[in-house]
Write a structure and sequence with these properties.
mainly alpha; Preprotein translocase SecY subunit; 0% strand; globular
């Protein structure tokens, strides 16, 4: 006969279910965000460009964005500026022992300081990438009403989307299960992978895509995922006084 769960076990299961529901809610919110386009984009021209570039690196980037790139949504940059900022901070710690020592010796305050640096770096990189993307969209004729106003709206939309994702990822880490940033990346790939694989193999079958290029893209995708997971799950030992 199975024993009835203790109050402690019941409480633990309730807390687990609560966290799982929050993760699911966060993923749904994220997926909705990937369908909100940047104002002023010509959807027909955008679809034509992605149709012409099936099986290329553009398809790979689109997969990592969960389809947000081909829809040119406010989350087209995804969480990549945050990942880049985290990598840069890790490299700075490796080349600057005094900085790493400072973070370690200041305990919880050092951890918060490091997080702040990564956040500022994320915003800076998002501004840089969003500006380049907005200019590229305009030069490709994808803007319905090109000009400074379109560029401003596009940059603000893209940076806001990235900052929101960064906040959502940190919230999932705190109130959900596992690393929030990794969950966002995983949900992006899961959403975009089936279609990307189908298009790639169909293109290879028809001879539109070189098989070696297809395998190379697959290798790059696997390596990129492994590297991102390694960076995000890397342990940082912090001494707390």
């Amino acid at each position: 006969m199975s024993a009835n769960p203790s109050p402690q076990q019941t409480k633990g299961l309730s807390e687990l279910w609560k966290r799982l529901r929050f993760v699911l809610f966060a993923v749904i919110v994220y997926r909705i965000g990937t369908h909100i386009p940047i104002p002023g984009i010509d959807p027909d021209k955008l679809a034509s460009i992605f149709q012409q570039n099936q099986g290329t690196l553009l398809d790979l980037f689109n997969m990592f964005s969960g389809g947000a790139l081909e829809r040119m949504s406010i989350m087209a940059l995804n969480i990549m500026p945050y990942i880049t900022a985290s990598i840069i901070m890790s490299l700075m710690e490796g080349t600057n022992p005094s900085l790493k020592k400072r973070f370690r010796e200041e305990g919880e305050e050092g951890r918060r300081l490091r997080t702040s640096y990564v956040r500022y770096g994320t915003v800076g990189l998002a501004l840089l990438q969003a500006s380049g993307l907005a200019l590229g969209l305009q030069n490709q004729g994808l803007a319905l009403d090109p000009g400074p106003l379109f560029q401003l709206i596009a940059v603000v939309s893209l940076v806001t989307g990235t900052v929101f994702l960064m906040w959502l990822g940190e919230l999932v880490t705190e109130r959900g299960i596992g690393n929030g940033i990794s969950i966002i990346i995983f949900s992006s790939i899961v959403a975009g992978l089936p279609r990307a694989i189908g298009q790639a193999f169909e293109g290879a079958r028809q001879g539109d895509i070189n098989l070696i290029l297809l395998l190379s893209i697959a290798f790059v995708a696997v390596a990129a995922v492994a590297f991102i997971v390694w960076v995000e799950r890397g342990q940082r030992r912090v001494t707390v006084n």
